[in-house]
Amino acid sequence: SVIVAQDKETLIRERHLRIGRALSIAYSDAPLKIVGGEGAYLIDDAGKHWLDMVNNVCHVGHCHPRVVKAAQRQMAALNTNSRYLHDTLVEYSRRLTAQFPDPLNVCFFVNSGSEANDLALRLARNHGGNHDVITVDHAYHGHLSSLIDVSPYKFAGEGGAGCPEHVRVAEMPDLYRGRWRHGDVGAGRKYAEDVKRQVEALAHEGRQPALMFTEGVLGTGGQLVLPDDYLKHAYRHVREAGGLCLADEVQIGFGRVGSHMWAFETQEVVPDIVTLGKPIGNGHPMAAVITTEEIAATFANGMEYFNTFGGNPVSASIGLAVLDVIRDERLMHHCHDVGNRLMDGARALADRHEIIGDVRGLGLFIGIELVRDRETQEPAPDELDTVIRKLKQNHGILLSSEGPHDNVLKIKPPAPFSPENCDYFLTSLDEVLSGLV
Ligand code: PMP
Question: Into which family does the record put it (predicted)?
Answer without folding.
Answer: Belongs to the class-III pyridoxal-phosphate-dependent aminotransferase family.
